[in-house]
Amino acid sequence: MYLGRERFTITGIVAREILDCRFNPTIQVDVWVGNEIFGRADVPAGRSRGEKEAWEIRDGDKKVYGGLGVGRAIRNIEDRIAPAIVGMDVRDQRNIDLAMIALDGTPNKQNIGGNAVIGVSMATARAAANACGLPLYRYLNANAHVLPVPLLNYINGGRLTSNDLDFQEICIFPVGAETFRESMIIGWDVYNALRDILSSKYGKLAVNVGDEGGFAPPIVSTKEAMDHLVRAVEVTGHADKVMYGFDCAATHFYDAEKKMYKFEGEYRTRTELLDFYKDLVKTYPIASMEDPFDENDIEGFDMATKELGIQIVGDDFLCTNPKLIRERGARCNALLLKFNQVGTLSETLDAAESSYRHQFGIMVSERSGETEDPILSDVAVGINAGQIKTGATRSERTVKYNRLLEIETELGDAALYAGRLFRNPF
């Protein structure tokens, strides 16, 4: 522990190994201020990761957690980061983040570890907010007041489950709700109706869930999955309030050697896959599509954005990276914002600002390896993002929704649910 006396001076950093929702180890960081106040942050981890993301450091000892331990990253926090930033003003977020970036010295934080850096960065923000006596969303932005539309992930596929559905997430988008609370009521109705439909059609095993709490039925066809989800929305009477969204995660079914997409059992060219997407958009009220092509298929993203007429979200395509947003900003029209993709809060806020300048929508997102930390809810409100994606059921998902319900209550009449203006709430 490193000691100091000033009210806003960082006096200590403690890091420990905890477990995420997949029972894998991750990092929890406490940043202490004035030896009396601390801020805590847990580090999420993704199973579906872009090649340009900040680098996680894992131990590699196959005898302990199959090599996934985070002891090396924790030692980097204690032995390298702490001496560099203890004594700094906790409110000086950008200089703290810059100090860690300089200490690492690599473009993707592979020296110290993106998982080490983001844990300290987010815990610093929490500690600063606590020291100022403010909720984090208010500390980030005095004008924070937008409650995001949740993209509720009710059918899982891809790398999130063991079924054969290629799309990673098939979601509802309750854009017609009047409040965030109403969006949760709609979500509850649809989720339980869908449970009954899938169980009746495929048996009880069909309502087992994937990594993010959505159902993982034995379905291969995207349209078959969509028909069930649409039916669940219709029987609950919410058809006029719901649109749909996908995380295609197309990088995972792209064959780099053949330069084709192996989708639903057959190889398709970029144009053939785009034709499939066009048919989906024509058949269903789809509002959003994430990573419809491989993360380096710039032409595919460009075609999708120009020809589908919906929100095209860049996840692996942009990696919450301001540089990539500048380079590829004309090729899609929304950012999937994941703070551990880029590695610091400052860079995350830069990515959000750059996105707004490109007139992008911003969808704040969790990772498949989540914890009970609801920090991304505060970040979503803090940047007035109109959208959030944090899974479906299980406590590491619902804790984010519970935090948003709490924030909505705190804001009172000032709260604005983004609704149909999710890409531009103002």
Give a verbal description of the structure.
The protein has 426 residues and is of the alpha/beta class. The protein folds into two domains: 10-132, Enolase-like, N-terminal domain (Enolase-like, domain 1), CATH 3.30.390.10; 146-421, Alpha-Beta Barrel (TIM Barrel). 38% of the residues lie in helices and 18% in strands. It has 13 helices and 17 strands. It has helices at residues 71-85, 93-104, 114-132, 136-140, 180-202, 222-235, 270-283, 298-308, 322-328, 339-342, 345-357, 375-382, 395-411, and strands at residues 10-19, 25-33, 37-42, 146-147, 149-150, 152-156, 169-173, 243-247, 254-255, 260-263, 266-268, 286-290, 311-314, 334-337, 361-365, 387-389, 416-417. Strands 5-16-15-14-13-12-8-7-6 form a nine-stranded mixed sheet, with helices on one face. The chain has a three-stranded antiparallel sheet with strand order 1-2-3. A three-stranded antiparallel sheet has the order 9-10-11. Strand 10 (260-263) and strand 11 form a beta hairpin. Helix 5 (180-202) packs across helix 6, helix 7 (270-283) runs parallel beside helix 8 and helix 12 (375-382) packs across helix 13. 56% of the residues are buried.
In short:
With 426 residues, the protein is an alpha/beta fold. 38% of the residues lie in helices and 18% in strands. A nine-stranded mixed β-sheet has the order 5-16-15-14-13-12-8-7-6, with helices on one face. Strands 1-2-3 form a three-stranded antiparallel β-sheet.
Write the layout of secondary structure elements.
Layout (H helix, E strand, L loop, with lengths): L9 E10 L5 E9 L3 E6 L28 H15 L7 H12 L9 H19 L3 H5 L5 E2 L1 E2 L1 E5 L12 E5 L6 H23 L19 H14 L7 E5 L6 E2 L4 E4 L2 E3 L1 H14 L2 E5 L7 H11 L2 E4 L7 H7 L5 E4 L1 H4 L2 H13 L3 E5 L9 H8 L4 E3 L5 H17 L4 E2 L9
Parallel strand pairs: 4-17, 5-16, 8-12, 12-13, 13-14, 14-15, 15-16
Antiparallel strand pairs: 1-2, 2-3, 6-7, 7-8, 9-10, 10-11
Helix pairs in contact: 1-2, 1-3, 2-3, 5-6, 7-8, 9-11, 12-13
